[in-house]
Design goal:
This protein is mainly α and 172 residues long. The chain has four helices and no strands. It has a domain of 56 residues.
């Protein structure tokens, strides 16, 4: 029986310490978050380096195998790394020269289309929105009629939004 009493007090002490630690973290959250940000800023280059090395390692192994097949000698790691990084630089240059200009052109087209889309939205608001507001202000509708009108006007908009969201989910 005495053991249960001690166990009960241990549990209370542990819960109290956890609660005090939680309150401490809440009070000092800005300082802790600042420390975490400094820590992440310090180690970001190292993490990126490890990620790049991990991604390029299969390419280095492939280059070393090709070198061995061609020259019947083992390839030094330095040569494999230089060739692998050269291949990566070529791929990045290819992407910069071919894909990024197309993306830039698409962005320019979108930017040029924004005024037209805004004008269409403004005209829709002027016609449909003003008609809707004039019907609401005539005071000839009760709350149920107003609610039905809102639902009837919002349902097509929400269904279009639902289709767009579904399309985004299918893309990813």
């Amino acid at each position: 029986m005495k053991e249960n009493k001690n166990s009960k007090y241990k549990d209370i002490v542990i819960v109290g310490l956890i609660f005090i630690t939680y309150i401490f973290f809440l009070i000092n959250l800005p300082k802790i978050w600042g420390s975490v940000k400094e820590f992440s800023n310090l180690f970001t280059p190292f993490v990126l380096g490890f990620i790049i090395a991990y991604l390029i390692n299969p390419l280095i192994i492939w280059v070393k195998k090709i070198f061995f097949k061609c020259f019947k000698k083992t390839c030094p790691n330095a040569i494999g790394m230089i060739v692998a990084y050269f291949i990566v630089v070529l791929i990045v240059a290819f992407l910069c020269m071919n894909i990024f200009p197309q993306i830039w052109m698409s962005v320019k087209v979108i930017i040029n289309e924004i005024p037209k889309s805004l004008e269409q939205a403004y005209s829709w608001i002027d016609t449909e929105g003003n008609q809707f507001l004039s019907e609401l202000t005539n005071n000839k509708y009760n709350v149920k009629d107003i609610f039905d009108m809102v639902l009837n006007n919002i349902t097509p908009i929400l269904s279009n939004m639902k289709g767009g969201v579904e399309t985004l989910f299918y893309l990813f």
